[in-house]
Amino acid sequence: MIDLNADLGEGFGRWHLTDDEQLLSVVTSANVACGFHAGDPVTMRRVCELAAERGVRIGAQVSYRDLAGFGRRAMEVPPDELTAEVAYQIGALDVFARAAGTRVSYVKPHGALYNRVVHDAEQARAVIDGVLLADKGLPVLGLPGSRLLELAEGAGLPAVPEAFADRAYTEEGTLVPRGQEGALVTDPEAVVARSVTLARAGVVASHSGTPLAIHARSLCVHGDTPGAVDLARRVRERLEASGVRVEAFT
Length: 250
Fold this sequence. Notes:
Forms a complex composed of PxpA, PxpB and PxpC. Belongs to the LamB/PxpA family. Catalyzes the cleavage of 5-oxoproline to form L-glutamate coupled to the hydrolysis of ATP to ADP and inorganic phosphate. This is 5-oxoprolinase subunit A. The chain is α/β, with parallel strands linked by helices. The protein has a single domain, classed as Glycoside hydrolase/deacetylase (TIM Barrel). The chain has helices spanning 20-23, 41-54, 79-99, 111-119, 121-134, 147-154, 188-201, 228-241; strands at residues 3-8, 11-12, 15-16, 29-33, 57-62, 104-109, 140-142, 159-164, 203-205, 211-213, 218-220. The strands form three sheets. The protein has a seven-stranded parallel sheet. A two-stranded antiparallel sheet has the order 2-3. Helix 6 links the parallel strand 7 and strand 8. Helix 2 (41-54) crosses helix 3. The longest helix has 21 residues, at 79-99. The radius of gyration is 17 Å and the shape is globular.
């Protein structure tokens, strides 16, 4: 059994990056941009309504305040400021989720923040404090072995490890930085095959070919990948054909 998540609502005004409606017919959890790296109130509301109609869980994808860099630039944010900004983003999305008859079901950092809280305990603590400020029971989605999930567990929050179908891994089990060659897995068949191996065996090959043990409860397919809808559909079909039940973790 595994959850299938994707980053959605990644647009702003007239700019739209993700095919939200089509992806919501495939995934079981939606990481919705909350306005700091992408997403505006109209987009957030629309995605929440579509997700609620389809029974897809809504997650707050919190980020550094970086619209120009799509949340993928390294930033230095004081912990108390980051805590407030995380809580603010969760609260903003939850208004639209509740108006649609559901709620925010989990939190997942985005981009530079996601990678930062793998090792940076101070920034990870600030994120967890922000989650607690918004809702003391929200699950936190993150990289297995990260400081983020360690601190989430310590704070009594459900810690949900995830894997990436379309990102390359280092030998240490972290994601290969996007600026490096081979950081993205672009061959659709390779993405599909990796997904099945991750779900059934909890193993993925690192960038150098070393097998890594990754026991994940959720699998991410990026919504901004070219052909993301077809790729997500193929991943889900192959998972189910392989005997893996695809359903939300919450």
